[in-house]
Amino acid sequence: MKMMRNLPDALLALPHRRDVPFSRLTTLGVGGICRWLFEPVSEAQAQVFVRACVREGLPWRTLGGGSNLVVLGDVTMPVLRLRFPQELRRDGLELQAPASHGHIRLSAAAADMGLSGLEYASGIPGSVGGAMHMNAGAYGRELVDVLARYRFLTGDGDLVEKAPEPGEFGYRWSVLGAGRVALGLTVRLAAGDPARIRAQVQDYRRKRGTSQPLGKRNAGCIFKNPPGQSAGRLIDQAGLKGLRVGDAQVSLDHGNFLVNHGAATPTQFAELMATVRAKVKATHGIDLVPEVEIWEPQKDDPFVLDPITG
Ligand code: EPU
């Protein structure tokens, strides 16, 4: 029998919304309902959220821009999404941004200021916090290359600001994944010529526009590139482009993009992902590993919240 729990008052006092569909919270648009969405507007409120969850032994999740996330059902545990003021601070060649700032907007702002170093990020959607979490990258560059300092809450809700150290950020991975909450960052950029920066951004945009299905709902690349390989090429060579399960389909433009034509269900999407993995394994003998974050349904979650009293 599932145990029902009410949420503590400390959480309910924070800005929150009920029953928001993941179709509105993710770019892919697959998933069920987010039962509890908490949207702190300050670091102090985010800290209250984490501390209250720790005190109550409540599991919770963090959502950023939802552009690298596949949700496979309803989520009943509290979900944290930061809603800090959208302000950037510049100090010489350094730019400071809150985690809830748009990642593409940060790249565009740097370009407008004539600061070079974030051109690679000009087409990577999502939030700055998500980019920190995943060490987002493209075209051989990644966030840690320009990261001067980063701020986060530990799993206990303590605030830390530090410079990145070796081993903390890797290929589409960072230490922030382990129950920590990214709060903001400071990037150190280089003085650049705005026209050259703009030209580089245009070039990346053109490349992305010709190789990726940007007009369809997607979550970016679904699988990590195995060392020295391209997951997209492996999927393509296995003859899987166009493979469709309901409204979920392997993109015809890029094999590592699985698109949602509008009404793809979690079951259809999960089935397509599993089939692609199995066929790539059969064809190439390679196990693809998801690059996207996947939220599974919480069938065994003891903290299912009573929808009436919860
Ligand atoms: N290719 C194919 N068929 C395909 C897709 C790709 O033959 O269906 C070939 C391309 O022709 C190219 C090679 O595979 O020769 C590599 O393709 P691409 O340049 O598109 O790069 P990728 O390795 O597939 C990576 C990142 C992307 C990032 C691009 C550009 C991963 C998993 N993917 O893709 O990141 O935008 O490089 O730097 O690391 C993401 O993280 O969500 C993402 C899309």
- Ligands bound, unique: uridine-diphosphate-2(N-acetylglucosaminyl) butyric acid
Order of helices and strands: HEEHEEEEEHEHEEEEEEEEHHEEEHE
Radius of gyration: 20 Å
Range of strand content: 15-25%
Supply the helix-strand structural class: alpha+beta
Q: Termini separation (Å)?
A: 17 Å
How many strand units?
20
Query: Averaging pLDDT over every residue, what do you get?
Result: 94
Q: Count of DSSP helices?
A: 7
The main β sheet shows up as: 5 strands, antiparallel
Helix content: 25-40%
Could you give a short description of this structure?
The protein is 25% helix and 22% strand.
Describe the structure.
The protein has 310 residues and is of the alpha+beta class. The chain is 25% helix and 22% strand. It has helices at 9-12, 43-56, 103-112, 128-134, 194-211, 231-237, 266-284, and strands spanning 16-21, 33-38, 61-62, 69-71, 79-80, 89-91, 94-98, 115-116, 137-138, 141-142, 147-153, 159-162, 169-170, 173-174, 181-188, 190-191, 244-245, 248-250, 258-260, 293-295. Strands 6-7-15-11-12 form a five-stranded antiparallel beta sheet. A four-stranded mixed beta sheet has the order 1-2-5-3, with no helix packed on it. A three-stranded antiparallel beta sheet has the order 17-18-19. Strand 6 and strand 7 form a beta hairpin. The relative contact order is 0.16. Mean pLDDT is 94; it is low at 304-310. Uridine-diphosphate-2(N-acetylglucosaminyl) butyric acid (EPU) binds next to helix 6.
List the helices and strands and how they pair.
Layout: H1 9-12, E1 16-21, E2 33-38, H2 43-56, E3 61-62, E4 69-71, E5 79-80, E6 89-91, E7 94-98, H3 103-112, E8 115-116, H4 128-134, E9 137-138, E10 141-142, E11 147-153, E12 159-162, E13 169-170, E14 173-174, E15 181-188, E16 190-191, H5 194-211, H6 231-237, E17 244-245, E18 248-250, E19 258-260, H7 266-284, E20 293-295
Parallel strand pairs: 2-5, 3-5, 4-20
Antiparallel strand pairs: 1-2, 6-7, 7-15, 8-16, 9-10, 11-12, 11-15, 13-14, 17-18, 18-19
This protein binds uridine-diphosphate-2(N-acetylglucosaminyl) butyric acid (EPU).
Uridine-diphosphate-2(N-acetylglucosaminyl) butyric acid (EPU) binds next to α6.
